[in-house]
Design goal:
Low-confidence stretches: 17-23, 62-80
Number of domains: 2
CATH topology of the largest domain: Nucleoside Triphosphate Pyrophosphohydrolase
Distance between the termini: 18 Å
Largest sheet: 8 strands, mixed
CATH class of the largest domain: Alpha Beta
Number of strands: 11
Order of helices and strands: EEHHEEHEEEEHEEEH
Radius of gyration: 19 Å
Helix content: 10-25%
Mean pLDDT: 83
């Protein structure tokens, strides 16, 4: 499964059908469509992204369509993989790699930053020749002035799109598990529009979700930090 975010809009690509994943379509705002050929998905998704009233679009790519499945899901009877769909839909986007950290301390707190009024997680662009885990650690240090004493596993990968100066981007962000000492002083990287760095108790995270972008909420869900 791949989820691609445009602010708080979400396009979900699935390559198989099962009852757990079908639950993703039970949103009243989901796009209603059926049997869209691959040659049409580019224009369909392009139109979807222009309509801010539509929050969720689910596309399932698999063989042997079950006619009893809810119609609030878009189907493509094809063996194409999720990644091939991703390439086709965003064929005129420039792809970028970034990495960040889901940083916790010994008390189970999570490190969060406030960037331009939105609570977020520390992350940044990969530099040439840099491995993604090195990028993640460097970005946490730069954005928060915090040393990481333990780098863990890759937890999840998020995808989001945006436009800047007339160029459209598809950014893939790789999220790593990290440990740090919460007694150390934190300093926000002001030049990156970060105004605050804060340790947050997991039980308090729901209070922060009102200003968190959809992609970051999904990262926290994928990492089993929030439900």
């Amino acid at each position: 499964m791949i989820k691609i975010f445009n602010d708080n809009q979400c396009l979900t690509l699935l390559s198989e059908l099962n009852s757990e994943k079908i639950a993703l379509s039970n949103d009243p705002n989901a796009v209603i469509s059926y049997n869209v050929p691959l040659c049409n998905v580019y224009d369909l998704v392009k139109d979807y992204l222009k309509n801010s009233n539509i929050r969720d679009l689910v596309m399932i790519c698999y063989e042997n369509i079950n006619d009893n499945v809810t119609s609030k899901v878009m189907y493509e009877n094809s063996t194409l993989t999720e990644n091939l769909y991703l390439k086709e839909i965003f064929r005129d986007y420039k792809e970028l790699d970034a990495a960040g950290g889901i940083v916790s301390d010994d008390n189970g707190q999570i490190l969060m930053i406030n960037r331009m009024g939105h609570w977020d997680l520390p992350k940044g662009m990969r530099e040439k020749g840099e491995s993604l885990d090195v990028t993640a650690v460097r970005e946490v240090k730069e954005e928060c002035s915090l040393e990481i004493f333990k780098l863990g596993k890759l937890l999840t990968i998020s995808h989001h799109i945006y436009e800047r100066e007339g160029i459209r981007y598809l950014k893939h962000t790789y999220w790593y598990e990290m440990k740090a000492d919460s007694s150390l002083e934190l300093t926000p990287q002001i030049e990156e529009d970060i105004t605050e760095v804060r340790w947050v108790n997991i039980s308090d995270l729901p209070k922060y979700m009102t200003t968190v972008f959809g992609s970051i909420k999904q990262v926290l869900k994928d990492s089993f930090i929030i439900k």
